[in-house]
Specification:
The chain is α/β, with parallel strands linked by helices. It has helices at residues 11-23, 51-54, 109-122, 146-159, 170-179, 193-200, 216-228, 256-263, 272-276, 279-292, 318-331; strands at 2-5, 27-32, 37-42, 59-63, 83-84, 91-92, 98-102, 126-128, 162-166, 182-185, 206-209, 234-238, 268-270, 296-300. The two termini are 36 Å apart. The chain binds phosphoenolpyruvate and manganese (II) ion. Manganese (II) ion binds at residues 104, 274, 300, 310-311.
Length: 351
């Protein structure tokens, strides 16, 4: 159920509707849009009787949402969600494409700083780096943990980049929340519902990767889990799905970008690194992702990929990242988008 407020409804009127919804035992989610505020009603107690809400002042109409996802849907918010970061010109979903660059794993301060410097100079606003790695083998490098988080906090200070890193369980989520600007939830955890709910109770943006075999609806429902707990800053990320194709690690499903944009107001970025698993395919698929209308790119960059502790084969060199940025900078204007230049000032407030 969705309560659509009148364009000029006051804050008090919105608050009164929310209180009424909560008094009925449901949860109210006021979502401001460009034209008007809509209030999503969630709860698992069956359908709400719209009668009493319809009569309240400031209410335009009460409508039933037929789709299983409610807060994710464009029904509740017609205009695109833009996620901004105070104290910086970084954003997801705005006119500027959100470019995220960095290694699969943080391996040492030297490695991380060297890559961060190149990524910032090339015009990215976000630095990615794994501190907790979900690895197929228990014997593979598992990440430096909190030490890596501290290195990334230093990168934010030195280079003015916002930090994105993955939480793999409840414990790492608490630590990631302390250090990062954006919490990544990986493909393997897309349906870890207790982790999604916990991330939903935090107030940091969440970058949610599509599960390896997730349908569009399952992907959107995973985002709904986060939003249903009150965290509305969710970024979707297509990172390839499992298919019979064996010329790439995964099959990058670019068609999900317009499919998501039709149904949801949330930003969606593309990760061609995991999506292809091959260094030589990252630039072409980045061009394609921007052309299809993605809101940004997530790219693995390494200064010495042959010796990377994870995902070296798909990591591009800093020089290739420069080339990628130059190419997508030329494609973006066709889509009425832009790609920023180098980070202007390195001094940013602590997040
Ligand atoms: C990663 O970003 O390094 C990662 C492990 O991604 P995914 O969850 O998409 O495999
Ligand atoms: Mn990786």
């Amino acid at each position: 159920m969705l309560v659509v407020m009148k364009a000029h409804a006051s804050e008090e009127q919105v608050r009164a509707v929310c209180e009424k919804v909560e008094s009925l035992g449901y949860r109210a989610h006021p979502i401001p849009g460009a034209q008007r505020t809509a209030i999503g009603i969630t709860g698992n107690r069956g359908t709400v009787d719209p009668g009493s809400l319809e009569e309240m002042s400031g209410v335009q109409e009460v409508i039933a949402v037929s789709k299983p996802y409610k807060l994710v849907s464009r029904d509740i918010k017609e205009d695109d969600t833009i996620i901004r970061f105070p104290g910086s010109d970084a954003s997801f979903g705005g006119r500027d494409l959100a470019i995220v660059g960095g290694p699969c794993s943080i391996e040492s301060p030297e490695q991380a700083f060297a890559i961060a410097e190149r990524v910032a100079k090339a015009g990215a606003r976000f630095f990615r780096g794994g501190a907790y790695k979900p690895r197929t083998s228990p014997y593979a490098f598992q990440g430096l943990g909190e030490e890596a988080l501290k290195i990334m906090a230093e990168i934010r200070e030195r280079y003015g980049l916002r930090i994105i890193t993955e939480a793999i369980d409840h414990e790492s989520l608490e630590l990631v929340d302390q250090y990062a600007d954006v919490i990544q939830i990986g493909a393997r955890n897309m349906q870890n519902f207790s982790l999604l709910k916990k991330a939903g109770r935090l107030r940091k943006p969440v970058l949610l990767k599509r599960g390896m075999s997730a349908t569009l609806e399952e992907f959107l429902m995973a985002a709904e889990y986060i939003m249903s707990e009150g965290n509305y800053d969710v970024i979707l990320c297509e990172r390839g799905v499992r298919t019979f194709a064996d010329h790439t690690r995964n099959t990058l499903d670019l068609s999900i970008v317009p499919a998501v944009q039709r149904l949801s107001h949330l930003p969606i970025v593309v990760d061609p690194s995991h999506g292809t698993g091959k260094r030589n395919k990252v630039i072409p698929l980045s061009r394609a992702a921007v052309a299809v209308g993605a809101d940004g790119l997530l790219i693995e960059v390494h200064n010495d990929p042959d010796h990377a502790l994870s995902d070296g084969a798909q990591s591009i060199y800093p020089d290739q990242f420069d080339q990628l940025m130059s190419e997508v900078r030329q494609i973006a204007p066709i889509l009425h988008r832009s790609v920023q230049g180098p980070v202007a000032h390195y001094a940013v407030a602590k997040a």
